Amino acid sequence: QDPMPLWQQLAREAATRGDDEAHRSVLRAIEGHHSAARRYPQVVSAYWTAIERRPEDTFLYDDLLRFLARHNMHDEQQRVYQRALSRFQGRGWPQRYARWLTRRQGAAAHRALTRRLLGELAPSELASYLGDTVSYSWRDPSDDASRFFLEVYREALRRHPGEIRFARRLYEFYGRNPTRFAAERRALQVAYAPYDRSMRDTLYNQLATEGDLDATVGRIAEGDSLAARLLAAEYLVRRAEHRRARDSLGTLVEGLPGHLGLGLRLANLEVSLGRRAKGRRDVRRLLGRYPVDRGLLTRAGELAIEQGDLEGAQRVWDRIPEARRGDPQAY
Predict the structure, then answer these.
(1) Which helix (DSSP H) or strand (DSSP E) does residue 23 occupy?
(2) Which end of the chain has the least Cβ crowding within 10 Å, N or C?
(3) Are 276 and 307 within 8 A, CB to CB?
């Protein structure tokens, strides 16, 4: 007796009640049944029917891709990747598709996909995707890989100037070719020094060597932008004028009470001035807005310990694994 009608009914019932594991188990049985008779198109059809029923079940896409790869059905693989890209957010599927494209169709196809994704992915997702799939040549800044790296990172930074990972990767590249890209590197330092300690410290050291530190920082700090005012406050910290720096950062935090970086910087300044209780209150206030930020939870526990509150530290730190489920570093 043909088992297919029963299996198809079981698959429909499992999908209707949302039992993804049972649904996939039936599909694997259908796959084995058709594969034994080399009826591969029927297997593909069964998987697509299942995906239409349960389009959010990523394991169905994985199982179908596994089957297609085993039987070298490349056009159908591309169709699955494209469907997954349109369905799921995040960096996972773009990265997998980029690797598959590179293997199957070469670098040109990967670059075409990357150019397309520049306008489709959210800034944080795009930064992760580019970080994993686009690199430059360490030896030759003018080869194809380096030129493509510059093209996409400059465009990404133009589109999303607030995503500092784009600036950091460009800064790293410029630093490996300091003579050729001296002007571009300095421009990045000035623009992002308020937000990146490495860029800021390098800028300060270079300007000090050139004898132009106070004048340059003074010119930048005359601006009314957040970056200019933050750079001025950080410069006061560098000069060990902590009270003036605290007052300056305090004014910024009043205008931007939900800014995590500014708030934590101010809290740490309070602690450095001996006002641990005030710094701890500031961190608690930030935790009200960012309850699952691991760095903030870590700092809150440290401040509790500095005040002798071991139970308070334990209560805060016990939240870290819960806030970062699946991350072994949390433990």
Answers:
(1) helix 20-36
(2) N
(3) yes
